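S.,

Sequence below, as promised.
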Amino acid sequence: MTEEVKACMAKQKTQIESAIQHLEKELGRIRAGKASAQMLEGVKVDYYGNLTPLDQVGAVNTPDARSIVVQPWEKKMLPVIEKAILAANLGFTPQNNGETIRITLPPLSEDRRKDMVKKCRAEGENAKVVIRNTRRDANEEIKKMSKDKTLPEDMAKQAEKDIQDQTDKFVAQVDKILAEKEKDIMTV
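The prediction came back faster than expected:
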């Protein structure tokens, strides 16, 4: 295998790994019945005119499986944080007790669980599309090398096979991640 082919495959692997990391991050935001600080990861708070991530204006904790507690560094930020959580439209209502904000997660209904599974599958399909696009790009690069006569035809065929094998391996990894998340969501 030539250095160009190795570089092409390494580039594809890097792009695929970043797609899988993105998938795992997105799936972490989808609630599976247990409270997680990741659920509030995308919430931005207006902190003195700047949109700031919630975890930079207060501590986010999960004291038990059904609740999240936000302890702001400054008490005057309580209403701003509460408003930001409501605006994020995450499906739960924060309760301000004057010192902290407590979010109690309601138990998930069967329909809500099925909707979450659909959302997970959509995220998984997006990751698979990215993986297939990287395969296409890598194959085009190999074909270009073969056409330019910098890569013999038999090596090009082997490289395309190796790219397909790498793609199949990562698609299987995405399926495994999705199966684990679906099982987690559907467990009552």
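Helices lie at 3-29, 78-87, 110-147, 153-186.

Coffee later?
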